[in-house]
Amino acid sequence: MLTDPWPTAFLFFAAAAVLPLLPKGLLRALLLLVVPLAAAWQIWTLDLGTFAQVEFIGFQLDLMRVDKLSRVFGLIFCLAAFLGNLYAWHVRDPVQQVAALLYAGSAIGAVFAGDLITLFFYWEGTAIASVFLIWARGTKAAYHTGMRYLIIQIGSGVILLAGVVLLYRETGSIAFERMTLGSVATWLIFISFGIKCAFPLLHNWLQDSYPAATVTGTVILSAFTTKLAVYALARGFAGTEILIYIGTIMTLFPIFFAEIENDLRRVLAYSLNNQLGFMVVGIGIGTEMALNGTASHAFAHILYKALLFMSVGAVLYRTGTSKASELGGLYRTMPLTAMFCLVGAASISAFPLFSGFVTKSLILDEAGAGHHPYVWAALVFASAGVLSHSGIKIPYFTFFAHDSGKRPAEAPTHMLWAMGITAFLCIAIGVYPDPLYALLPYPVEFHPYTMGHVVGQLQLLCFALLAFGVLMRTGIHPPEIRAINLDTDWTYRRFMPAVVTRVADAVSQFWSAKMRFWLRRVEAVVGRLFQVYGPEGRVAQSSPTGAMVLWIAVFLGVTLIVSFLS
Amino acid sequence: MDTNTAILLTMLLPLGAMVTNLVFRDSPNLRDGLTLAASVATFLTVLGILSTVGNGTTEPMVLFEVLPGLDLAFNVEPLGLLFAIVASGLWMVTHIYGIGYMRGNNESHHARFFACFSLAISAVMGIAFAANMFTLFLFYEVLTLSTYPLVAHKGTPEAIRGARTYLGVLLGTSIGLQLVAIIWTYVITGTLDFEKGGILAGHISGPMVAVLLALYAFGIGKAALMPFHRWLPAAMVAPTPVSALLHAVAVVKAGVFTMLKVGIYIFGIDFLAETGASEWLMWLAAFTIIASSVVALTKDNLKARLAYSTVSQLSYITLGMALATSMGALGGGMHIAMHAMGKITLFMCAGSIYVATHKTNISQMNGLGRVMPITYFSFLVGALSIIGLPPLGGSWSKWLLAVGAADRDQWIMIAVLMVSSLLNVAYLLSIVGRGFFLPDSDGTAAPKVAEAPLLCWLPPALTAFGCLVLFFIAGDILNFLSPIVAPN
Amino acid sequence: MGEHKRKKPEHLPALGRLLLWVDRPGSANKIFWALAVVCALLFVLDFTYDKHGHFHIEELPGFYGVYGFVMFTALILAAKTLRIFIKRPEDYYGDRAVDSEEYPADQLDKERYHAD
Prior knowledge:
heterotrimer; A: mainly alpha; 4 domains; two-stranded antiparallel ribbon; 20 helices; 3 strands; 3% strand; globular; C: mainly alpha
């Protein structure tokens, strides 16, 4: 036990505890950068195996299970925390800084959790820590959005807890291993993962909350929660067939919403949802290569998604808006941000030589090899969809298109560095994927750069671009307008509140009316007792009544004491 | 010092504090200092009992025989000892807080206030160490009577009304129902002793078991089972230290403690499980959990919201007993400690806010967290513990209760616990969110940090830390309690 | 907006100045037709190597191109139709949603571009 290394998550928690004690400014920002690097170093140098096992309430908790699957997720989480914190270098709000540390720490802790109780603890940890990144915006809307987010996130946690309890009752074990759907317990755990993974119909917390977070908060949020859920599914439900179909739907429906959404950070949230779909399909297929695809796609995705959120965030930071209808032509004064955004767009669209290409092909290839023609066709369609909103819409309507007349300054230096490093990694992975492949859970026998792959992908993307050109020139492409679109959140933002308010009012009225009736009766009885036995006219005054009752009590007490001693 | 003397001392020390409060009514520092000394001494005495007895059970010490089989008697057993540790430990904290609150708030009649307070603690110790139902009942009534003046303390018409409801419901239920149940039990069994495995098995059967249980369950009004919960919100007119200790710890926990005692030592878990007599109680507790949480959502007054939250949380413990499984009973027992620590934190924070700003409604508290960060942070920690989130104590008791429900295949009860958590999030964390992140309600809040006096913010910070500690010692608490359900 | 009129292109950052090309008259046309040429080349490329996919349809020359073009167009049209049904004003959810509120200015650094 003593020779065991510290669980990586504790590094973050310790830093979160120390941070408020440091002087405001440079030291705190530095701490935020050093901790993820130290954590990554620790993970990198650890041997595979299970460490930090503790005995608790009769359970053995495995705080640190390092295997190839958890290691790759742990590493990318550290990297994402580093990049997010670098991007947030200018933030001096200790709440956001501590929340970022606790959030990243919880996510990393969950990834290394070897048992379901530990997983549950960290699962809830990510929920609580992350809401502060939304609340930190400090507006009424952000407060309400945060509450909605929190209830759904903690809801996922309590469903997990219920599932774990039932599973423990069923099997007598709390180990976090591969499960098969069948019992209520496993279904509950599955749904709990599904909420955080933004399964269709359970997804809307994502699009609701990410655009409401702070400029830097959204970048940090985008990395952890959903990818933690992907990891958990990959660990617990690999090869579960239903995931193929869930994932396919996930890749499809967000692309329609993303197309007509005005807030670019929400467009990216829809796009994130769509990318998760690819990973979920990989988990559903469940072969070694498909799981490799999921893990690598998660790795690449965290980077390019963060890059896109960073670039839109930088625009928001400089102009005060992230709405497509208000932006355009910013390349003139923010050319570097525009370039980084294009790198992110190319990566998510999976252009050859960019990171998305070398990871998504793994999943697409396995969908083909597994002979799921419809799934495969849907994924290819979704790939074209990604191009439309993330590849074209984000950079085009922000930095090009018609000139909005806005002339913001270039993003601050630290943001440029964060974007630059991330962009470099996106290209590096695309050009030379072998180091990433080597990190994956299973040996990789895959060559993304074959003639067929490259030409096929380029055809798909270029013809889609051509279609965009045609639609723009003919004026068919829908314009960006100031509006919102309904989604499933309508049910709990408009419909349910109305119902709940009514029910709550009814319950409270029922009780107060009922109880008032009964209480009057009881009071009448007590009152009469007082009138008969108490001194007349003194009932209405507190002090004498109080004193009287005190003396009764004292009398009773003294009687008891006397009886002790006699 | 032998254990029996120690037991007496835990009751006599607070009683002595009452006397000194009345004698030295005009020298505040001496008075408060002596009371603090008494509270520390009481706590140490209880710890002394812990160190000699551990989680064993001592032979009853009979002081006085009323009728054959009807004694005034005390003994030590794990559940009671846990309750005594919690109550006496939190008494120290609350007393410090009470001094800060009463002085910071310029309340009147300090001496009477602290005298009643001490008497109430004495009664709680009697309840905790009672060896039979008769003794427990006597101290239960002393507790009701001694806390009445505390509730009426402010002397306003509203306070009088609240206090009358308080007294009416508690006395009415205990005399009208609980006493009947006790007499009934005595008549059919000839004893009222708390015995492992219960005393009723073999003496009563069929639907009568459920009826007797109903008399107890409703008769223990302090457990605030719906529909006899109204006294608790009504008692919120009391000064906040009273709400904190008595209505988050001593009085309400005396209620659910009695409920657990009745379930475990009068009926017996196995007997309840065999007869299914507690099935309806389980549903009623579940209803109370959800309904009062929903009511709490609608309350804008902070203390009223906390009161309804307490009603809900007390039913967790009743539920644990009604599940009639050993895990449920242990979870219920543990929840006494976990909820006490969390809820007292919340109440003390509410009081600090009142002392500092004289605000009582949540809608007026926007942005206050930035002014009183320590108070609000403590509130956050307490709230997370109540919700049952790691790394705070409340998560373990909730886990045990859920395991207990799973043991009975009561999936709906698990669902109730989970839904309740979400409701807790909605009505507790919204307060924190508003406080830290919303713009000031009226623009009057001080722009910089302006906490309540030290004696007001330090105690809740300590209990918040206690919630964290409880998470890590939960395993020890579980081991400590386990004999209460161990087979004979 | 007088200020930004004063800003002559030569004051923009070098990269920004370079990119100004895209806004010149006729540039959009050039880009579009260049893209069309690239597409045509890619189509022709399909005949130059031995295609083998998991499905027969993949082996059709230009399959990916046609699929991309058609599906992209279908997607845009479908989304446009969807908008008719689900579009709502920005303040639909009132002050409980961020859509109709300004981002708090004190957390931003809304610096305008300064020429050196």
